[in-house]
Structures are given as C-alpha cells and as structure tokens.
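Sequence only, no structure available. Ideas?
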Amino acid sequence: MSNLETAPAELTCENTGEAPTVRGRVLEPRLVPLGGPRAMTVRRTLPQRAQSLIGAWCFVDHYGPDEVSSTGGMRVDGHPHTGLQTVSWLFSGEIEHRDTVGSHAFVRPGELNLMTAGSGIAHSEHSTQKTTVLHGAQLWVALPEQHRFVAPDFESYAPPALDVDGARVLVFLGSLLGQTSPVQTYTPLLGAEITLRAGQSLRLDVAPEFEHGVLVDTGEVTAAGVDATEGQLVHQQTGADHLDLVAAGRDVRVVLLGGQPLGEQIVMWWNFIGRSHEEIAAFRAQWQHERERRDSDEKTQYGPFPDQWRETLPAPELPNARLKLRG
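Reply:
I predicted one. Tokens follow.
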C-alpha cells in the first residue's frame, strides 16, 4: 500500500533505549484519509512520536471494515518503494496486486503477501469488483543496512490454522507455537493473527530479545497487562519471556507483531526508506524520471511498468527543510 498523504512528514525513527518492562503500553491510532473525496480512512499506529519501531516493523495501517460501495474501496495506482518489505494481511475482501518484477497476485483473507522492495520496486493495489467489505492491515518492515539494496521480490504464503485450547492462530512470519513461516525476512520477526473466544486467556512463550506489538482488530483485550480496544496497539518492550492475552466479553481478534530491535536509524518519507536526505531526494527524482519515460528502453531502478497500468502516482514535493537523521 502507498502512503497517499500529499504532504508526507519526514519521519526519523530510532530506538528509545528505555528500560525493559513486561507491562505493555497502549499506543493510540491517528486517522489518515487515503486518496480523494471518497477516501478510505486508515488507523495508523506506527510510526508515532511515542514509538517509532517495534523490532523492524516501522509502519502499521489498520483499515475497515469498509463498505466498498460507499468508500470506493482501495484504488492505489502504481507507486514505488525502497528499503523495506510490505506485508499485506486481509480479514475480508480481495485486493489485486501487480508489480514491476512481474508478479500478479490476489491478496485474500488469511494469506500473506510479502513484497520486498530492496533497491526499488513499484506496485499497484486495487480491491476487486467482487469485494463488498474491505478489512485488513498493511504493514511495513524496514530492511537493515546490509540488506536494504537486495533485489526486489514477491512471495505469498497461506499459513495453516492452529487450534490452541480453542484459540485460532495463523503464524504468517517467523515462529510461534511450533509453527514457522517459510517466507524470507532480513531481521528476526514475528507476525501472527490470533482469535480468542470471549473470556478466554492465552499465554504465549516469546523470545525475550524481541519487543512485541498487539494490534487489536476486533473486541477488547488485556495484552501484556493493559487493556486495549479496537484500533489500538499495545507495545511490550524486550525482556519478557511471555505475553498474556485475555479476551473481554466478546470474541477478540488481534495481530501480533514482534522482532529484535533494529538498532539503526532510518528516514521514512512518502513510500521510501533511506538513510539520508540525498538518498530520499534521489529515490524521488528517479521515480519521477521513470514515470515520464515509461516507454523508454533505458535500464530502470523500479523496473518495467506492467502493460495494464494506465496511471501511476506522482511523488509529492519534498519539504523545504532538509531531511535529516536526528537523535
């Protein structure tokens, strides 16, 4: 998914170095409209001032359930990414994906779509005509310095559903409860969808070197000792060897994210992740150049545009101030 803000803020991300605690902290979402007058609104919990990253997870958008007839659904034309992996996860609906490495796939509920941008890729995302309700999460993972220019790639994976004392668990990244996802990541990560029955509790053994986030999709849950409701994200720092989840008076569905702290600073602007103002400006300029010369035979950073693309998204103007790493 693209960040469609017309004036995206410079985001400098760093680890805070705060002391580990088992008890979690609730992060509130902010509402961000994507697109024009019939924009689909997402709830964004990462990044924010209180927390830049959770492991290498650097961007969390949560959307829906949206009636496509009123919102128009997802209509995101071709746009670029660098230095990250995008994780698409749906609860309902269907999204058609095309990219510049030749992938054509459909994102469906319970199926992971992982796109590695690396040195540069472009993709489009359109909800399909048969979609009536669109509901899901779009997540980004920052690539570490040594891997951030890897060749772009695309993978899909449908994890098996685990029954854990009545809880339903889908492990789509990393390892949990004896299940391991086969898709490639470049830092130690965890991603899972967990559904609990009303009143049910679940204790998960987790890696103490990981920090974790619990994104509440539906219902109310106590996670890492704090109460959270739909749209909120609970952050648990490193040092805990377990994570407790307790559902309140109705069924709960959450997305569990985890990973080792990245230990690096990054700059996020629009759909790019870089390490300097010069990099971001170069990524932007190259994208604009390739949009204008899409029929050229010259070698490109973002790859050949699919024949089906009629439109691509222009990059916003850079801010007047120089983009800088801070902290």
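Residues 29-259 form a domain with the Jelly Rolls fold (CATH 2.60.120.10).
Hope that gets you unstuck.
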